[in-house]
Amino acid sequence: MLKNIDTNRDHLTTPEAAERSGLTRTYLALLLRRGTLEGFRHGRDWFVYTDSLEAFLAAPRKSGPRGPRKPPSETHTNDADHQS
Question: Domains of the chain, with CATH numbers?
Answer without folding.
Answer: 9-59 (1.10.1660.10)
